[in-house]
């Protein structure tokens, strides 16, 4: 079960909570997404959340890049496996270096119904089969 916690100081009403998805249990890593087999192409969808527990009103996307200097484009989508629909297209993050970069958090206001599957896929503009780490935090409202 995903962790549910309150955010001190976050502008929220009394019934707002958050859930984290995409963290690999027992490690300090996020879900690894592999880009397409040729540069500039999206790889396969990878599940981040099997099912959200409540209606999501905002989403924080966290992206970490592993050992590849490139520009990555990440899609966040919803829907059943094989039928995903892009919700947040081409979130772009660039990196130059040789070790895991800092996490790049991005906040989006978006409505996602309860019980929705969330997945991600990625492309690297200059490399084939590169990897990027992705996780999400959903901000949920009981309203």
Care to describe what's here?
- Strand 6 and strand 7 form a beta hairpin.
- The chain has a single domain (25-141), classed as Sandwich (Jelly Rolls), CATH 2.60.120.
- The protein is mainly β and 143 residues long.
- Helices cover 0% and strands 51% of the residues.
- Mean pLDDT is 81; it is low at 1-9.
- The chain is globular.
- The protein has strands at 4-5, 16-21, 31-34, 46-49, 56-65, 70-78, 85-95, 104-112, 118-124, 131-141.
Number of strands: 10
Order of helices and strands: EEEEEEEEEE
Q: Biggest β-sheet, characterized?
A: 6 strands, antiparallel
Distance N to C terminus: 22 Å
What descriptive keywords fit this protein?
four-stranded antiparallel β-sheet; six-stranded antiparallel β-sheet; 143 residues; 0% helix; Jelly Rolls; 10 strands; mainly beta
Concise account of the structure shown:
This protein is mainly beta and 143 residues long.
